[in-house]
From TrEMBL:
Its job: Assembles around the rod to form the L-ring and probably protects the motor/basal body from shearing forces during rotation.
Swiss-Prot/TrEMBL keywords: Bacterial flagellum, Cell projection, Cilium, Flagellum, Periplasm, Signal
Protein name (Swiss-Prot/TrEMBL): Flagellar P-ring protein
Family: Belongs to the FlgI family.
Organism the protein comes from: Methylovorus glucosotrophus (strain SIP3-4)
Subunit structure: The basal body constitutes a major portion of the flagellar organelle and consists of four rings (L,P,S, and M) mounted on a central rod.
Transmembrane segments: none
Residues in coiled coil: none
An annotated GO cellular component: outer membrane-bounded periplasmic space
Principal location: periplasm
GO biological process, one term: bacterial-type flagellum-dependent cell motility
Length: 374
């Protein structure tokens, strides 16, 4: 019988989110402001370059199928004063055309070393043992910000698994630690103007309001003001004390607002992740030989005679899941999504079954959460 989730994975997911599924309210722990927001303008930049890897042990590009490798080699040799005879047919096996990528961190200065990743462009079998030739790394403005060169390391080659030799990675990708040197800095206007802008990593008006309150409580009223659900304007000193001000600003603890209800489903593996805001309404879903029914019935609690108490009426939900006629699985005590998932897993539903049922609940308005399928 096909199961929806492996038992171990289901246990990990549902234990971690048990309070979420059962509708329990847990206190939101404070987080540092540096974990919730970034400073506008302080960002990394992507760099890219094209070059050749040489010194391969016969595992390079097949030049008959990758003419750009030959053209690049001829152009490089001409730049070094080497002219090949007209009509020379190069049969290269130790050369591969590659793309080189790196990330330029904020405040990087000339002379600083960067890690680079080298990826094969052609049909090279392996980049192991190769050497990257000097490569200009350019930014989005087509300016050179770093130069890369060095010996490649292809990690995990020939690793042993279960007593047998196996390749556990792509041999067409290698890495050079500290393989690039920064040649040009990207200016950051951090000390200009009368203030800075903080950008929340996730837009939320409630969290933005709480961040403003925490900053004003720490530095005084009027220090911060929210411009929208993401950007917060902060008045910061314009002199050399701005760095120490930002250090203190990043260390402020903020209790973020509770995130919106969300369910994430991996349709390939059947993995389900949800937060504690997810709730279900009454509904009935029929999918193939599966039927899911969620009902809410009033439960009346009446006090004893002469006790002086009052009659209390509360709502109680029941979940009924039927796979075959006459075989009904009932869960009492609360209609939570985690209970539905566990019950569907118990009767052998597939990831496709779960996806169809959740989408049907969402369309009917019974699933009070955003459904994201990855």
């Amino acid at each position: 019988m096909t199961t929806l989730l492996p038992k171990r994975r289901l246990n990990i997911l549902l234990i971690a989110l048990l309070a979420a599924g059962l509708g329990m309210s847990l206190p939101v722990e404070a987080e540092r402001l540096k974990d919730l927001a970034t400073i506008q303008g302080v960002r990394s930049n992507q760099l890219i370059g094209y070059s050749l890897v040489v010194g391969l042990d016969g595992t390079g590009d097949q030049t008959t199928q990758t003419p750009f490798t030959v053209q690049s080699l001829i152009s490089m040799l001409q730049g070094m004063g080497v002219t090949l005879p007209q009509g020379t047919n190069l049969q290269l096996k130790n050369v591969a055309a590659v793309m080189v990528t790196a990330t330029l961190p904020p405040f990087a200065q000339p002379g600083q070393a960067l890690d680079v990743t080298v990826s094969s462009m052609g049909n090279a079998k392996s980049l192991r043992g190769g050497t990257l030739l000097m490569t200009p790394l350019k930014g989005a403005d087509n300016q050179v910000y770093a130069m890369a060169q060095g010996n490649l390391v292809v990690g995990g080659v020939g690793a042993s698994a279960n007593g047998s030799q196996t390749q556990i990675n792509h041999l067409g990708v290698g890495r050079i630690s500290a393989g690039a040197t920064v040649e040009r800095a990207v200016p950051v206007a951090l000390n200009q103007g009368t203030g800075i802008n903080l950008e929340l990593k996730d837009s939320d008006f409630s969290t933005a309001s709480k961040v403003v309150d925490a900053i004003n409580q720490r530095f005084g009223t009027g220090t911060a003001a929210a411009q929208d659900g993401r950007v917060i304007r902060v008045n910061a000193p314009a002199d050399s004390s701005r760095v120490s001000f930002l250090a203190a600003l990043e260390s402020i603890n903020v209790n973020p607002a509770e995130s919106s209800a969300k369910v994430i489903l991996n349709a390939r593996t059947g993995s389900v992740v949800m937060n504690r805001s997810v709730s279900l309404e009454d509904c009935a879903v029929s999918h193939g030989n599966l039927s899911v029914v969620i009902n809410t019935a009033p439960v009346i609690s009446q006090p004893g005679a002469l006790s002086g108490g009052q009659t209390v009426s509360t709502a109680r939900s029941e979940i009924s899941i039927e796979k075959e006629p006459g075989k009904v699985l009932k869960l009492d005590g609360g209609a939570s999504l985690s209970d539905v998932i566990k019950a569907l897993n118990a009767i052998g539903a597939t990831p496709q079954d779960l996806l169809a049922i959740l989408q049907a609940m969402k369309s009917a308005g019974a699933l009070r959460a955003e459904l994201e399928v990855i």
